Amino acid sequence: xxxxxxxxxxxxxxxxxxxxxxxxxxxxxxxxxxxxxxxxxxxxxxxxxxxxxxxxxxxxxxxxxxxxxxxxxxxxxxxxxxxxxxxxxxxxxxxxxxxxxxxxxxxxxxxxxxxxxxxxxxxxxxxxxxxxxxxxxxxxxxxxxxxxxxxxxxxxxxxxxxxxxxxxxxxxxxxxxxxxxxxxxxxxxxxxxxxxxxxxxxxxxxxxxxxxxxxxxxxxxxxxxxxxxxxxxxxxxxxxxxxxxxxxxxxxxxxxxx
Length: 258
Prior knowledge:
single chain; alpha/beta; 3-stranded parallel beta sheet; globular
């Protein structure tokens, strides 16, 4: 298993508060059977921009501490980049980077908005060779209200990363329902714990994988076969066809036709 989204680097954002907490988060992930975990702190343009130098120093420190603690889990580099019109410029300037140094870039939207420039930014990034991954779309209010927003992005080449806690209901019923719908409709491509600490937002992910395997085994197999392609900067297999949403029959809607 690969955890594509976590905040295990301490002292850089709202994630781990100390190196000891970082190591405990790694231990939890390893106990779950996670082989690779991506360290993806927030990068918010014009508000909080972690430099590559600071990131590397913190990342190397965590890798060393993990090794000294005899943990086997492999830590991979990355960022969770906040959607902004300047992302193509930042990428060209090498101020933001993909997972494990790859072209796969994790990007999050504002929770309550779907900015009008979203598709344009993704398109411009793809022209630069980026393979965008949208972080936890199931938590975005506009996408919860209209799944077509996410479907259109998938059709344009954007991958979807769903949070394990969303499938478990930790963010509420609406988010859980959206995540479950995404599973049913083949709209999940990778999973992340989005772990921030060792209490309320842990680096647990196994149960979510089990849920996907139970609800949609073909998609579970697709994820299993392609997650290593992503960290190795290789193309993924063709995406599974998105399933149409089944609409319940309603006498009221029936008679509206006449």
